[in-house]
Amino acid sequence: MTSKISELVTGQRIEVQLASSNVPARFFSEFIGAVNDRWVIINMPDVRKYKDVRDFLQEKTPVIVRFVLENENGEICAFRSEVSYVISHPTKMLFILWPNQIEHRVIRKGRRFDAFLPAEVAGKSVSGDEVSFKGHVLDVSESGCRLKHEKPDGKLEELWENGSKIVLNIEQKRNGDLTLNAIVRQIKVLEEQVELGVQFMGNQKEQVNSLFSGSLVDIDELSRLESSAR
């Protein structure tokens, strides 16, 4: 369904991953435009942030391209292709070959996807103490996530309560750390860990999109899901 490219707008954030096995790098850039059935055109990545990556961007370099469409529900899209041309004038641009197909996943409110991302949970406990625990995100949706953190010493029942505000520092795979503010909505005390259901606070749409596009979209998994749905 390559028509998804027509929904992109100029200047939209695009993630590009170098797909060759010896160069597992990725970068963010901006969508410039497209020539239907021929090329997707994006800016060359910022030299200040991605100086080393730019050296590998040559013709025939295989890439995976990911982007989020802000339509009714929001969609995460991804496709495999390769660099066709690197243009220097009037500005440095990458011409990426038009893909044969685009895999996509609708982000529906309340629908959750497995994540398993390392994270740190920090906040003020019920007793008023500032606490911080290592853990990991189990799954994530557009509105929140479910996570576990290590079992602390002391009285577990008084650690968090419904409405406690916490900060999540999530380690994204090859994409740096991401900080999200959240509110505790569910608490489950387990034998070894504490499990929390949390709601993301408002005005964090870009961070939530980054969480999906930078950490959760796996082109191979999307392909398998697409095949099984047929």
What does it look like?
Strand 1 (13-18) and strand 2 (26-35) form a beta hairpin. This protein starts with 12 loop residues before the first strand and ends with a helix. It has helices spanning 47-54, 205-216, 219-229, and strands spanning 13-18, 26-35, 39-43, 62-69, 75-87, 93-97, 103-106, 113-124, 130-140, 144-150, 165-172, 176-189, 193-200. The chain is mainly beta and 230 residues long.
So what's the oligomer here? single chain
Whole-angstrom Rg: 20 Å
Provide the helix percentage: 10-25%
- Could you say what the CATH architecture of the largest domain is? Roll
Q: Main attributes?
A:
2 domains, mainly beta, Thrombin, subunit H, 230 residues, six-stranded antiparallel beta barrel, Pnp Oxidase, Chain A, 3 helices, single chain
In brief:
With 230 residues, the chain is mainly beta. The chain is built from three helices and 13 strands, in the order E-E-E-H-E-E-E-E-E-E-E-E-E-E-H-H.
Layout of SSEs?
Blueprint: E1 13-18, E2 26-35, E3 39-43, H1 47-54, E4 62-69, E5 75-87, E6 93-97, E7 103-106, E8 113-124, E9 130-140, E10 144-150, E11 165-172, E12 176-189, E13 193-200, H2 205-216, H3 219-229
Antiparallel strand pairs: 1-2, 1-4, 2-3, 3-6, 4-5, 5-6, 5-7, 8-9, 8-11, 9-10, 10-13, 11-12, 12-13
